[in-house]
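Same chain as my last thread, 107 residues:
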Amino acid sequence: MASIADYWRALKGANKIKKEIKQMEEKKSGIRTSEFWLSVAGILGTAVAAFGGFIPAALAAKIAGGLTVAYTVARAVVKITPSTKDDAFVEAVAAKLGGLIKPEIKP
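reply #2:
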């Protein structure tokens, strides 16, 4: 038989898990992603190479445009793709807590 202390620990654990799940569901803003900074580094590197005379300016413009398109597509995919690995995590935690919390899985 579970004691009040057990229920209290389970409730505290459930609240912590819900908070972590909420953070997992939130999408990062564009400037906080590695894709953004890799794109910026690629564009700056291309600009330095073009100004240094290592590559033609027309090629540098194509590379910068390609990097911009790649970044835009990557962000769009992240924004529209639902995450299913979070759902499995929530179900596993709910099973371990013995039904004290019910997973709220969005369709």
